[in-house]
What we know:
By secondary structure, the chain is of the alpha/beta class. Helix content is 41%, strand content 14%.
Amino acid sequence: MEKISILLSLLMLGLAICTVEKVKAAQKAPWRIQTLFSVECQNYFDWQTVGLMHSFRKAKQPGHITRLLSCTEEQKKTYRGMHLAPTFEVPSMSKHPRTGDWYPAINKPAGVLHWLKHSKDAENIDWVIILDADMIIRGRIVPWKLGAEKGRPVAAYYGYLRGCDNILAQLHTKHPELCDKVGGLLAMHIDDLRSLAPMWLSKTEEVRQDRAHWGVNITGDIYEKGWISEMYGYSFGAAEVGLRHKINDNLMIYPGYAPREGVEPILLHYGLPFRVGNWSFSKADHDEDEIVYNCGRLFPQPPYPREVMQLEIDPNLRRGLFLSIECVNILNEALLLHHAANGCPKPVWSKYVNFLKSRAFAELTKPKIVTPATLQVMEDTVQKHIDHDATRPYPKIHTVFSTECTPYFDWQTVGLMYSFRLSGQPGNITRLLSCSDADLKLYKGHNLAPTHYVPSMSQHPLTGDWYPAINKPAAVLHWLNHANIDAEFVVILDADMIMRGPITPWEFKAARGKPVSTPYDYLIGCDNELAKLHTSHPEACDKVGGVIIMHMDDLRKFALLWLHKTEEVRADRVHYARNITGDIYESGWISEMYGYSFGAAELKLRHTINREIMIYPGYIPEPGIKYRVFHYGLEFKVGNWSFDKAEWREVDMVNRCWAKFPEPPDPSTLDHNDEDNLQRDSLSIECVKTLNEALHLHHERMNCPKDGSISKLNATEESEISRKLGNFSKNFDSKENRMSANDSEEMASVQKDGTGIPSSFRFFWVLFLCAFSVLGFLVIVFLVHSGHKRKGMKMKHHRTRRRNL
């Protein structure tokens, strides 16, 4: 019996081994896969390499991975990162050997072509996956499972490559109709890559040299530097050899974006800055970072999953935030493991390090499996529709404007919001509402615009100075520190504006380090002793204001200075005089404007001054210019009719049904003999007509009586609109406290199913059941064996007794 038991055990063990081998065989790719990524000999690429290599292993990506390392001989002498990844060395083409052009991005096609020609690995490969270094792999990338075929590669969508649709493609490929807007993730058969690679390199060189067509309206490159020539080189090269792609807009996602419903991205591309709450990450901030070689150093810790749960209610937007923190958490996990493997001392214990080593984190970041929705390919008809979506190819924009809890700002808000919706302005808009606690309790205009509430600084908390204009820089700073902002550019407006068209960074050529604004020529303090007193760089003082288009990175560096310089100029009463400030009232009212100009000068942030964005009604327009904004800050007239916003400071135009401003003259009554005056008066009429249209629509939505009589809201409606918000400062502080409380529970309640049981608890419960089942099986086997043994001994004793008898 014991022999049978042993044989049975061996049989079961053999079956288990066979099962494991079958699983391994099933997981093994039937074709050979090679993953490639291109880097240079820089610290910047080294930490990206560590992150990508770690994610490659973590995701259990099939096949091998090779780093194409482009270095000069001089760089190799001091380079420390040869051990970071399996490496194939490539001669550097950062400085073109023929033209001398400095363009490091060309190393990607040059490196791939050199690998194809000189690597033995390239002779034994069926499929190639080409990635960028700044990526994190979340799940297995298997080309044929993604739909790739020989002659039909799979690629991610790069919608901003508008050159595929215009003269650029016609100039650089014989088959512009075959140009696909793709990049980032490329999965193709090795034979296709052999055909494409030489054309990829030559077309990159060709587009790079075509400086006449670097404009944003042709390439979509907002910096107009030809930096995306390599991307066009790929698309034009593929068109030239007749390669059409299966374009997938779901496989790859930029952190900061939310995936479509049902989509599970398997690749994170952290090429753009992204933010979660007050925390943010931009790879550009770590250009020279030696973090790979500094033991114990990690990137700034993102919020914990529990905090993210509190930041966003919408489930899909929350998924986007989780992807953002996952990206940097995996980079930090990679750094921890890299430091440990290279002899660094054990890191000092911290809650965050403990989280990265926890089973819960391992569960959250286990390899992802593509869903059917993820595999959906963009059909040609769908692609045409998306290609013309004006908001996709460009960086995100957020528009903000500052107001207070007064009827005066409420009717301005109604006008600006109405015009914003008509203008086609991309992105979201936020009203920065500065109110005291007492005013907020009585305020009725909460629903007039998407709002960020800001404690009022109208009366300065330290000096007691009454200066409401300081709320603008104070509100912007508060918004930056407390709001979840996912935009790359911010457009700052005043409430007393009417939008007539979109204001975008790509059209007006705003860039990081180069904001765009409109002229405020009366700021004469930029040219005299005022600038010398209040900035260490008076030569950098720009006379600007009104409309501001600024990169988010610049705004974050600048906002605090804007506020401080405003306080500084406001306190300098000795220099309020008109001949110094240009302020006709000599009251220091334009201190905030000088605060902006001096703060920017302090950072040497020079503006592109554009006179075609904004016009004051009552001014004669330049011929042929379509101004995007009316700024009705000054009185203007048409004949005997006039409009001055100051006259409506105390009038409740919003809550009085059908209230409107005096109708301007009919355009048909204007004098058509003087073209300049006609254009001036037409714009003035348009401004106030837009305000009245906005008020009319607002009153319709208020369900005002149809008889058209002007009246106040009744008590019931008034009580519905007025909300008791309590003490604003305390509410905000309590919210912050709730977010930081219960730190010991960060890993709990992150993922729940319909039962409401945390995933970490389910994991331990399943583990317990498995252990209990195995233990139960062993107990049963033991009892069966011992029972047989006792029975055998009884029978033997019985036979012996009979023989003795």
